[in-house]
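Hi support team,

I submitted a single chain yesterday and got back a structure, but I'm not sure I'm reading the token output correctly. Could someone confirm the output below corresponds to the sequence I sent? I've pasted both exactly as they appear in my results page.

Thanks,
R.
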Amino acid sequence: MLYLSDIAKYIKVKIPTIKKISAGVIDASATESVGVFDNNRSRSTRIALGGAKNTRYSKQQITILVHWGKTQKECFNKATELYKLFFGVSDVTISGNHIAFFTAYEPQSIGFTQDKIYEYLIPVDIYINKEE
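Hi R., thanks for writing in. Yes, this is the structure output for that exact sequence:
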């Protein structure tokens, strides 16, 4: 099982300039914060032909919220850095889970907060190999 906190730790190790990162919530009072969330898209369970014993991987969908800086450019640059962490990446191990590959979607601007902190969303699909 891959938890949101596992993804948050992975991001923190890969991009140490991110000081505030959390799972399921962000620090809205901070000028620079990242949150990792379950994606609320409808999930379909994938079962291979031949049943569960032949199913080799599962898919987990997450969204990364980038709450960063007072300018759109600042936020876009940090969102792009995070996007590149996942885009085209394969054969990674996170908390004992073998990730076959990620499918990352380009950062999407969602505007800014009342405090004028810009925000971007990055949807990511994670394909996790089944334990042998």
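A quick pointer for reading it: The mean pLDDT is 90. Let us know if anything else looks off.

Best,
Support desk
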